[in-house]
């Protein structure tokens, strides 16, 4: 079973690397709501495109469960060019990333290119865990992740409403 999970993760990362021709991204980090796409290549799957307000973000890991209730300014913006801009109130967090959707597993993963917590900028690249697109329609989105970590499975579910 672990081999299946490792193969799935490798496939997701491969899809991200090879499907995104946007390797020379110059991320923007702006708290004023203005974000600039860094590509002109359209994504092949437009299901997530738009601005999604975070309603809840539930994380369960190592026997602990927390639920964050989003505030009005919390959002993820998925652009038609494969950019992802995240803004969350806790710690004044912002993130600029490149996303890709795996149509076989109907999941999304993103490569974080630039993030800021309380104004401290980091340009260390990292991949998110793969999130299954549990549900998506014109006004709601649910992303769910089950990823193996040091102390067991880390579960996360983010519920969005389209703005």
Question: What labels would you give this structure?
Answer:
Lipocalin; 11 strands; mainly beta; 163 residues; 1 helix; eight-stranded antiparallel beta barrel
Plain-language structure description:
The chain is mostly beta strands. It has a single domain (2-20, 43-162), classed as Lipocalin (Beta Barrel), CATH 2.40.128. 11% of the residues lie in helices and 50% in strands. It has one helix at residues 2-19; strands spanning 50-61, 64-69, 75-78, 83-88, 93-102, 107-117, 120-122, 126-127, 131-136, 140-149, 152-162.
Could you provide a short overview of the structure?
With about 160 residues, the chain is mainly β. It is about 10% helix and about 50% strand.
Per-chain topology:
Layout: H1 2-19, E1 50-61, E2 64-69, E3 75-78, E4 83-88, E5 93-102, E6 107-117, E7 120-122, E8 126-127, E9 131-136, E10 140-149, E11 152-162
Antiparallel strand pairs: 1-2, 1-3, 1-11, 3-4, 4-5, 5-6, 6-7, 6-8, 6-9, 9-10, 10-11
